[in-house]
Amino acid sequence: MPAQTLEQHATADSAESAKKADKVDFKMVTFSLAGKEYGIDIMSVKEIAKAGRFTYVPNAAPFVRGVYNLRGDIISVIDLRIFFHLPAERKQEEALESLIILKVDEHVFGVIVDGIDKVVGISSASIQPPHPIFGDINVKYIKGIVENSGKLYIILDVERIFTLDRAEAPAQKAVYDKGEEFERTERELLGQNAADVAASFVKETLAAFRGFHVGAVNSAWFERRLEEWRGLRKNEDMQLREASEADQFLEGFWSPCTSVLWDEDYAKAVEAVLPDIETKNINVWNPGCGKGYETWSLACVMRRRYPEARIKIWANDSDLLAISMAPNMVFPENVPTYYSEYLVKGRNGLAFVQSIRDSIFFEFHDIMNPSTLPPLDLILCRDVLSFLPAIDQKRLLGDFSEKLKPNGAVLAGSNERLGEGWTAIGSEAVSAYRKD
Amino acid sequence: MRVEYINPFVEAAFNVLREVLQADVRRGELYLKSTSMPVMGVAAIVGLAGDVEGRVLFDMDKPSALRIASAMNGEELKEMDDLVKATITELANMITAQAVTKLHDLGFRFDLTPPAIFTGENMEVSSADVEALIVPMETPQGKIEINVAIRERA
Description:
The structure holds 2 protein chains of 2 kinds. Chain A is α/β, with parallel strands linked by helices. Chain A has helices spanning 2-22, 80-83, 158-162, 175-190, 194-210, 219-232, 243-250, 264-273, 293-305, 320-325, 354-358, 390-403, and strands at 26-33, 36-41, 45-51, 64-70, 73-79, 97-104, 107-113, 115-122, 142-148, 151-156, 281-287, 310-317, 330-331, 343-345, 350-352, 360-364, 376-381, 404-412, 422-424, 431-435. Chain A has 3 domains: 2-183, CATH 2.40.50.180; 194-250; 264-435, Vaccinia Virus protein VP39 (Rossmann fold, 3-Layer(aba) Sandwich). Chain B has one domain (3-152): CheC-like (Chemotaxis protein chec, 3-Layer(aba) Sandwich). In chain B, 36% of the residues lie in helices and 36% in strands. In chain B, strands 1, 2, 4, 5, 6, 7, 9 and 10 form an 8-stranded antiparallel β-sheet that branches. Classes of the chains: A alpha/beta, B alpha+beta.
C-alpha cells in the first residue's frame, strides 16, 4: 500500500514538473554563431532581415561592419561573430548576410549572425544561470542557458551588450560616436593587457565562490589586495581555483569582531564615532545582521551612548536559520566586561536584559525586497554591500540615503567606502559616513 | 517579517493540516517573495489587524482544493461548489486562528477578519511594500502555499 502511494506521488510530481516546463512565458529568436546555438529575447528583436552592402564607416571598431539603410532609418550593423572573437567567414561583396534587427531602448541595431533558425518558446523557469567560466563569450553578456528539444541555447543579454555606456551616451548619437563607444566596449572586453584579464578573472571567481562582488564600495581594497596577492603569488598564477583560495584572498577584508560580540576596544571606538542625536526616539536599521552578534553589541553600545533615548533596532537577514537563533542568544561565562551590566544570568547562561531585548526586532527579510521602516538615524551595514552585485550595491546605497534622516549615519565595513554623496566621519577603527 | 511570527504560522499550518487530513504532511523550504505573485487557482485570504497588520493567503490549485475538501468532508467532491468553498475557507480560518492564538500567548495582540475565498484562472495578488513569507506545505492531497505578509503598524 505505501508503495502505491509513493508511486502516485511520483506521477503527480512528474506531471507537475511537466506542467511547469510546458508553461511558455519566454520566447527567443535562435540563431547560430560559429556552429553554436544562441538565443535572444524576442522582446528585444524588432525584425529579421537579409541584407548586404553595408556602408563602411572609417575609424570604427573592427566589429562594426558599417551602417545600413533600413527603409529610411540608418542603423549601425555589428558583426556579433567578430564582437565575440568567433571565426567569421567573409562573404562576397554582393552576398547577403543574416541580420537580426534589435531594439534596445531607443537604439536600433543590426547584428550579423551565421544563420537565423526560428522562434523557440520556453518556460523562463527552465533557464539556468551561466557558469562563471564559460568558454567563448564573456559570462556577463550571457543571461542563461536553456535546453530545448535536445539543443542547448545560450541566451544573450542584449541589454548588457549594447548599453554598457548608456550613462555617458546621449540619447541620440551619431553613428561615428557609436563606433567609438563600441571600441571602448571592445577594449573592455579584451582587457588590453594580461593584468586586467587576471584581475577580472579574480573578480569573477570571487563572485562565483563566495558571492563577493567588486564594486564601488570595495574597489579600493580590492586593488590593494590584488597587488598584495600578486606579490604573494609571485605573479605566476594569481587565479583562485577553489573556494578556500577565495577565502584566503578575502582574509583581511572582514571588519573587526565579525560573528562575535564586539570586544571592548571596538565597542568603545564605535561609541566614539556615533554622532550626537537630539531626538528621544532613535531608529536604527541593521540589514544583513547574520546571527545577530553585531546587533546585540550595537544595542549595548547605543544604550551607553544615548542613555536617555528610546532605541529601536530593526535587524534583518535573509538566512532563516541564522536569524531564527538571533533573538534567543545566550552566552557562557566569558563575555567582555563592557556588556556585563546588560546581561542577566538565566537558566542556560547569560542573556541580555529585557530593556535591551525590547529594543531589537529581528526580522526575516531580504534586503532586495521593499521594506517599511520609519526615517532612520543610523544604519549598521558591515560587509553586507560587498556581497551584492555592483548594481544592487548602488541601489541599496540609494535606499539608505532615502531612509536616513538628515545627518543620519551609516556604519560600513572597515574596508568599504561609500563614495559620492557621503562624508566620512569615522575613525581609524570604524568606517562611518554621514549623508551629505 | 519578525522572526517571532514565523514559527506560529508554520506550526499551526502543520498541526491543523495533519489533523484534518489525517495524513502525513511535509513542510517545504521557507522563502521570501516580493509582493506580486500569481495565484494557483483557489485562494483563501484572512486579514489581520491590531499590533500588526497584513494578511495570510492560502493558495492551492483547483484539483488540490477538491481533494482536500473531499478528505475533510469524508466524501468525494467533484465540483467547486459551495461546500468545497466553505471547507477551504474553514481550513484557512482554523490555521490562522491557531497561529494567532499562539502569537497571543507571546504577547502580540491582533484580530482576524472573516476569511474570503477567490477562485479563477490567471489571478495575481500584490500588496505594496510588504514582502511575503511563503510556507509551502506538501500533503498527499496536493500542495498548499501559505503566504504570510504582515508588518508592524507604523
